[in-house]
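User: Predict the structure for this protein chain, please.
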Amino acid sequence: MHRLFVEKTAAFANDSAHLIGDLRNNLAIESLKSARIVQRYDLDGLTDEEFAKATQLILSEPQVETSSTELSLSSDETAFAVEFLPGQFDQRADSAAQCVQILTGKERPFVSSARVIILTGQLSKENLEAIKKYLINPVDSHEVSVNAPYQRTESPEPKDVAILEGFNQKTEAEFEHFRSELGLAMSTADLLHTQKYFQKEDREPTITELRMLDTYWSDHCRHTTFMSKIAKVSFDEGTEVIQETYNTYLATRDQVYGASTERPVTLMDIALMGMKELRKSGELDNLEVSNEINAASIVVDGDDEQEWLV
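Assistant: Here is the predicted structure, written as structure tokens:
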């Protein structure tokens, strides 16, 4: 197993500069002085010579990046690593593995990647936890050790898809508990309607079928959510920027609809207000107005002749 750390040189470390600005602006941690991003690769199935070639030709750009098999940290630096969860597709690792296979002409090697975040400053435990919570999306990623050897794990054999025994015999009261237990977006009435379908099919549904129905039903419900009236809005401490943006929206509403409008405040209205303001000011006169609300189209003149580079 080979391990490599790759980092942009200071002149090209745009992502690191963006990260420190993002953390300072959104988390307001004054003690945070700097941030670095280091890309870590773990590769299995290569000789030392093949690894050296892959380092120079694929895994790093020597002109703008430094690479090392070890990561050195100073006393005032704190680091943690973020990696995709097992089963999540890692585009960077997959692309690297394909390129290394082309380079060696052999079987595709195993490649894993992780992003190492290195922070400088006197950070408290609470500060560090806040930064991790902000940067790590638990849906697809998790924190891993920075320097511990990589442990390859085999994906467990999937179990058979469960059949929801007794689904067709459940009562309305039982469905109330059932939907709560599974965390379903569907209502009890929706489940009763689904039950009628499977009763006609003369079979019980699988958990996959029910989850799929619930997912698409949840997507449908989001449209209802967008149109729901927002009666009261409150802001947590430290969200002044969000509050200012919301106040700008309210002021724009008055300009677009008039101060006496009875139109409700909704998520959909918030999303469309910028477009409506541009239309009112005449800056969006080429918008196609139609009953289709899932996408926006603009009208362009395609009759003008122009030169094409072929």
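The chain has a mean pLDDT of 89.
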